[in-house]
């Protein structure tokens, strides 16, 4: 008969052999196959980070990692670009995201890649900005909806925090805001950003930063529509009159 100690020992060894960590469901299934007679596996492993804090911790919800790998959580990962595009830059992704925003998710009817310092000041300029306008044949009419996006190619924690702050600032003049980050970012950072986006109503998109032709945009959460400050709306929209042609 297997004991609680046997199951926990096996769980810790499996977690130790996976540097990136192990999801709860994967760990449970592995142990269930190893100890099919046990009915208490869930009870033994759900709080391993609490019962064995000197060995196990959770960098994010449902992810178990061995304590010896904790130091790698704060490592900043260099940008890895595709060999076919050794000079791939962040702005290379702006047109593709603009097209995806308009034609795939149909959040906008007009959209332009922006970036740079067109809006001036310290609050920054969206990398992509668009507007949704109801058409002449639409039965229900509404006021235009402004949609902005901040795209970050870097995956370091500092860059993600900076990008998140910029995205929040765009809510001054945008009804909806997307924050777009690489899918290779540290899992814990993605989870934290997703939770913050849900709290603050931002949309979160993951993408493959090594392939500008097929970034594989993935929606983690959609933005919530809110009413921006009309003064900032008018001040900003004067700088992008092409959206209102």
Structural class: alpha+beta
Encode the helix/strand succession as letters.
HEHHHEEHEEEHEHEEH
Task: Order the strands across the largest sheet as they lie in space.
Answer: 4-5-6-7-8-9
Which CATH class of the largest domain applies here?
A: Alpha Beta
Strand content is: 15-25%
Largest sheet: 6 strands, mixed
CATH topology of the largest domain: Trna Endonuclease, Chain: A, domain 1
Number of domains: 2
The 3D shape can be described as elongated
Strand count: 9
CATH architecture of the largest domain, by name, is 3-Layer(aba) Sandwich
Low-confidence stretches: 75-85
Counting DSSP H or I runs of 4 or more residues, the number of helices is 8
Cα radius of gyration in angstroms: 22 Å
The CA-CA distance between the termini, in Å, is 75 Å
Describe the protein:
With 245 residues, the chain is an alpha+beta fold. The protein folds into two domains: 68 residues, Arc Repressor Mutant, subunit A (Orthogonal Bundle); 155 residues, Trna Endonuclease, Chain: A, domain 1. It is built from eight helices and nine strands. The strands form two sheets. The protein has a six-stranded mixed β-sheet with strand order 4-5-6-7-8-9, with helices on both faces. The chain has a three-stranded antiparallel β-sheet with strand order 1-3-2.
């Amino acid at each position: 008969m297997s004991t609680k100690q046997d199951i926990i020992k096996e769980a810790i060894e499996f977690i130790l052999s996976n540097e990136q960590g192990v999801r709860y469901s994967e760990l449970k299934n592995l142990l269930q196959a190893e100890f099919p007679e046990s009915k208490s596996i869930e009870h033994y492993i759900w709080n391993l980070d609490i019962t064995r804090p000197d060995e196990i911790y959770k960098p994010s919800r449902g992810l178990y990692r061995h304590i010896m790998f904790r130091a790698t959580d704060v490592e900043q990962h260099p940008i890895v670009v595709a060999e076919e595009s050794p000079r791939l830059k962040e702005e290379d992704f702006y047109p593709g995201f603009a097209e995806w925003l308009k034609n795939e998710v149909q959040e906008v009817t007009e959209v332009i890649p922006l970036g740079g310092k067109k809006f001036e000041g310290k609050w920054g300029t969206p990398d992509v900005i668009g507007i949704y306008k109801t058409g002449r044949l639409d039965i229900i009419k509404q006021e235009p909806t402004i949609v902005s996006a901040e795209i970050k190619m870097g995956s370091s924690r500092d860059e993600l925090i900076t990008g998140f702050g910029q995205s929040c600032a765009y809510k001054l003049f945008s009804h909806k805001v997307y924050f777009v980050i690489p899918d290779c970012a540290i899992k814990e950072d993605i989870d934290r950003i997703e939770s913050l986006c849900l709290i603050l109503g931002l949309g979160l998109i993951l993408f493959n930063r090594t392939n500008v032709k097929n970034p594989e945009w993935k929606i983690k959460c959609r933005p919530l529509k809110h009413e921006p400050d009309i003064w900032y709306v008018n001040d900003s929209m004067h700088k992008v009159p092409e959206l209102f042609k």
